[in-house]
C-alpha cells in the first residue's frame, strides 16, 4: 500500500513538471588583444561573422589574458546596466540548474516506476538494481542541492553585488553544479583518459544523506548491493525454503524461479531483498517529494532575484514572461511577487512548508 501511494505521488509530481527543457553554457572566447578597447572590437568582429544579434561582455582571465562571453539568447531590456551584465553572467547557471533539477526528477521517476513494476512481477533482482539506483540518485540530489542552496543563500545575503562579486560567485557555483551535473568516472579504471570532471563517490553522498534523516536504511542498502552483485544476496532471491534436517546431518534449500508462487510444505523464508527494495524505495521517494519543491524554489529565487527569469531560454525551467509585482509568485509561497523575498540582501529560505516531513 505504501509503495503504491508513494508511486502515485511521484506521478503527480512529474506530471506537474515540464517534460522537456533547455540549457546553455557560455564558453569563453579567447582574445588576442590585451587592450580593453581593442579586445572589445576584436570580439565584435568575431561575433558579426555569425550574425548581428549578440549580447556580449569582455573580461580578464586569471592569467591576465582577455576573453569574451556572448549569447544570442539573453535579451535584457535596454538601456543596459551593470545589473544586466551581472544577470548575463548568471544566465547560463540558471538554465543549467533547471536542467539538473529536471533530470533528477525524471531519473527518479523512471527508477520508481521500474522498481514497482519489477516487484509486482516478483522480478526481485531488477527491483533491487532499480531501488538501489533510486536511493543513490536521490541522495545526490538532496546533498548537492543543499550545497547549491547554501552557496546561493550566502551570496544573496551580501546585498546587491558588483561585477567582481558576481564573477566570483559564478565560478564557485559553476564548479559545484558542473560536478553534480557532469561529473563522471568513465575512463578512470584504465587511467588512459580520466574524466575532465571527476564525480563524487556515491558512498560519500549516501553517508551524508543518511545522516540527515530519521530512517536508517544502511542494512537495506547493503542487501541491495549484495543482490545486484553476484554475491550471497542474489542467491537468496531464489530460495523458497531452507533448513537443517532434524538429525542435524544436512542443510537443504528449495529454490524456485518465482518463490512467491512456489508451493511449499513449510513456511517460506523471508524475502530480504524484496523488503530492502521497499525500505529504500519509501525513504527515497519521501526525500524526493520534499526536496523537489525546495530545489524548484531555488531556481525561481535565483531567477527572480537576479532578473534572469524574464530573459531565460524559451523552454527552460524558471522562465517568466511576466514578472509584475501584482502577480502570484511562481515560487509556491502563496504570496504576491511584490511581497515575496526574491530581493538582494535576504537569505534564500524556501517556504517553511517545503520540508522533508511534508512528504511523509
**How many distinct helices?**
9
Shape: elongated
C-alpha termini separation:
14 Å
Mean pLDDT: 89
Give the SSE string: HEHEEHHHHHHEEH
Secondary-structure class? mainly alpha
Description:
This protein is mainly alpha-helical and 360 residues long. The chain is built from nine helices and five strands; from the N terminus they run αβαββααααααββα. It has helices at residues 2-15, 36-48, 82-120, 124-157, 163-182, 202-210, 218-228, 232-236, 272-306, and strands at 29-30, 55-60, 66-71, 239-244, 251-255. The strands form two sheets. It has a three-stranded antiparallel β-sheet, sandwiched between helices. A two-stranded antiparallel sheet has the order 4-5. Helix 1 packs parallel to helix 9 (272-306), helix 4 runs antiparallel to helix 5 (163-182) and helix 4 packs across helix 6 (202-210). It is elongated.
What are the main properties of this structure?
two-stranded antiparallel sheet; elongated; 5 strands
Give the arrangement of secondary structure elements.
Elements: H1 2-15, E1 29-30, H2 36-48, E2 55-60, E3 66-71, H3 82-120, H4 124-157, H5 163-182, H6 202-210, H7 218-228, H8 232-236, E4 239-244, E5 251-255, H9 272-306
Antiparallel strand pairs: 1-3, 2-3, 4-5
Helix pairs in contact: 1-3, 1-9, 3-4, 3-5, 3-9, 4-5, 4-6, 4-7, 4-9, 7-9
Amino acid at each position: 500500500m505504501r509503495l503504491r501511494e508513494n508511486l502515485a505521488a511521484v506521478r503527480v509530481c512529474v506530471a506537474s513538471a515540464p517534460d522537456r527543457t533547455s540549457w546553455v553554457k557560455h564558453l569563453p572566447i579567447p582574445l588576442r588583444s590585451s587592450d580593453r578597447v581593442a579586445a572589445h572590437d576584436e570580439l565584435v568582429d568575431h561575433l558579426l561573422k555569425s550574425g548581428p544579434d549578440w549580447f556580449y561582455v569582455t573580461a580578464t582571465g586569471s592569467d591576465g589574458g582577455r576573453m569574451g562571453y556572448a549569447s544570442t539568447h539573453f535579451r535584457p531590456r535596454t538601456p543596459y546596466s551593470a545589473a544586466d551584465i551581472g544577470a548575463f553572467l548568471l544566465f547560463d547557471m540558471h538554465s543549467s540548474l533547471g536542467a539538473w533539477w529536471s533530470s533528477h526528477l525524471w531519473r527518479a521517476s523512471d527508477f520508481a516506476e521500474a522498481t514497482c513494476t519489477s516487484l509486482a512481477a516478483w522480478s526481485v533482482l531488477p527491483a533491487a538494481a532499480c531501488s538501489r539506483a533510486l536511493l543513490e540518485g536521490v541522495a545526490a540530489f538532496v546533498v548537492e542541492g543543499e550545497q547549491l542552496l547554501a552557496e546561493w543563500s550566502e551570496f544573496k545575503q551580501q546585498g546587491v553585488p558588483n561585477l567582481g562579486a558576481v564573477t566570483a560567485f559564478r565560478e564557485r557555483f559553476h564548479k559545484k553544479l558542473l560536478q553534480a551535473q557532469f561529473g563522471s568516472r568513465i575512463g578512470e579504471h584504465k587511467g588512459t583518459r580520466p574524466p575532465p570532471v571527476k564525480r563524487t563517490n556515491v558512498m560519500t553522498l549516501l553517508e551524508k544523506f543518511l545522516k540527515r534523516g530519521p530512517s536508517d536504511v544502511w542494512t537495506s542498502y547493503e542487501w541491495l548491493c549484495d543482490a545486484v552483485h553476484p554475491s550471497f544476496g542474489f542467491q537468496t532471491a531464489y530460495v523458497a525454503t531452507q533448513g537443517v534436517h532434524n538429525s542435524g546431518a544436512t542443510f537443504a534449500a528449495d529454490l524456485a524461479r518465482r518463490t512467491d508462487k512456489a508451493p511449499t510444505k513449510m513456511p517460506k523464508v523471508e524475502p530480504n531483498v524484496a523488503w530492502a527494495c521497499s525500505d529504500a524505495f519509501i525513504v527515497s521517494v519521501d526525500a524526493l517529494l520534499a526536496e523537489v519543491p525546495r530545489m524548484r524554489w531555488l531556481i525561481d529565487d535565483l531567477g527572480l532575484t537576479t532578473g534572469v527569469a524574464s530573459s531565460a531560454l524559451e523552454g527552460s525551467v524558471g522562465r517568466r514572461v511576466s514578472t509584475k509585482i501584482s502577480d502570484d509568485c511562481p515560487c509556491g509561497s502563496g504570496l504576491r511577487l511584490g511581497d515575496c523575498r526574491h530581493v538582494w540582501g535576504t537569505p534564500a529560505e524556501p517556504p517553511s512548508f517545503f520540508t522533508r516531513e511534508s512528504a511523509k
